[in-house]
């Protein structure tokens, strides 16, 4: 009965708001407040139940940004602490400014908000068709991937990330419907601030001990450096110059 009364009350408010001659009037605060609550529910997704938190809301980027803008606009319009409280157009302009946009965006927010208040199932359409949603949009999945990569240490590869995302328990928890390619896995790792690098070689493992290198070092480089040191100014550990090393024999 309580739900029926609430539904009847909302219908009466809608009829009052959209009666003949009132199409251009701003929706009532009560209708806008109900829309704010429903918009937040759309953005959060369905609750997980006893485990707490929310399931990932499968909304593409375009629609999500539109919903965020609509909610910001209606929040400014319905919050008594807002400087634009109860001011329909001013609230839309303020929301557009926070989004880094102008009057056109404000006008679109008003159109979208009016349509949504009339029908809460009427979400903004994506004019670019069905987008391929990145798995990294799921924050819970990102946290699990980061923990898994930390366990791998310095043995992280794109192939191991693919194997992890193919695990049945991961697929079930996050409703993964397709596998990713090696290139996509590499892009995901880059997004998570991992960079590919060649394994560093140990000392003298890159050719420094080849026979020709050893011969040139022992027969030419070291003797030449020793002969030059005889003519070089030497210093002690405190930085004071040492007297020159004089060879045995006549000085002239």
Describe the protein.
It contains ten helices and no strands. The protein starts with a helix and ends in a 23-residue tail after the last helix. Helix 2 runs antiparallel to helix 3 (61-78). The model is unreliable at 16-21 (pLDDT under 50). The chain is elongated. It is mainly alpha-helical and 252 residues long. Among the domains are: 2-118, no CATH class; 135-191, no CATH class. 54% of the residues lie in helices and 0% in strands.
What's the arrangement of secondary structure elements?
Blueprint: H1 2-17, H2 29-44, H3 61-78, H4 88-98, H5 103-118, H6 139-152, H7 158-165, H8 168-174, H9 182-191, H10 211-229
> What's the overall geometry?
elongated
Which segments are poorly predicted (pLDDT under 50) over 5 or more consecutive residues? Answer: 16-21
Number of helices: 10
Structural class: mainly alpha
Number of strands: 0
Residues in helix, %: 40-55%
Distance between the termini: 122 Å
CA-based gyration radius: 35 Å
Topology pattern, helix = H, strand = E: HHHHHHHHHH
Quote the average pLDDT.
79
What fraction of the residues are assigned to beta strands by DSSP? under 5%
What's the quaternary structure here? single chain
Largest sheet: none
Notable characteristics:
single chain; 252 residues; mainly alpha; 10 helices; 0% strand
Summarize the structure.
The chain is built from 10 helices and no strands. The chain is mainly α.
């Amino acid at each position: 009965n309580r739900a029926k009364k609430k539904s009847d009350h909302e219908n009466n408010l809608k009829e009052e708001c959209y009666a003949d001659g009132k199409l251009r009037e701003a929706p009532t605060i009560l209708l806008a407040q109900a829309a704010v609550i429903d918009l937040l529910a759309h953005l959060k997704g369905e609750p997980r139940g006893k485990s707490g938190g929310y399931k990932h809301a499968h909304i593409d980027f375009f629609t999500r940004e539109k919903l965020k803008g609509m909610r910001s606009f209606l929040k400014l319009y319905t919050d008594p602490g807002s400087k634009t409280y109860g001011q329909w157009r001013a609230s839309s302009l303020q929301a557009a400014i926070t989004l880094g946009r102008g009057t056109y965006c404000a006008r679109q927010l008003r159109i979208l908000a009016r349509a949504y208040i009339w029908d809460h199932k009427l979400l903004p359409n994506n004019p670019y068709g069905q987008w391929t949603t990145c798995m990294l949009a799921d924050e819970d999945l990102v946290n699990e991937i980061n923990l898994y990569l930390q366990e791998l240490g310095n043995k992280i590869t794109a192939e191991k990330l693919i194997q992890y995302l193919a695990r049945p328990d991961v697929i079930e928890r996050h409703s993964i419907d397709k596998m990713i390619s090696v290139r996509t896995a590499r892009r995901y790792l880059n997004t998570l601030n991992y960079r590919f690098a060649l394994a560093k070689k140990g000392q003298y493992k890159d050719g420094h001990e080849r026979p020709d290198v050893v011969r040139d070092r022992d027969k030419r480089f070291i003797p030449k450096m020793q002969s030059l040191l005889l003519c070089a100014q030497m210093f002690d550990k405190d930085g004071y110059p040492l007297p020159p090393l004089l060879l045995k024999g006549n000085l002239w």
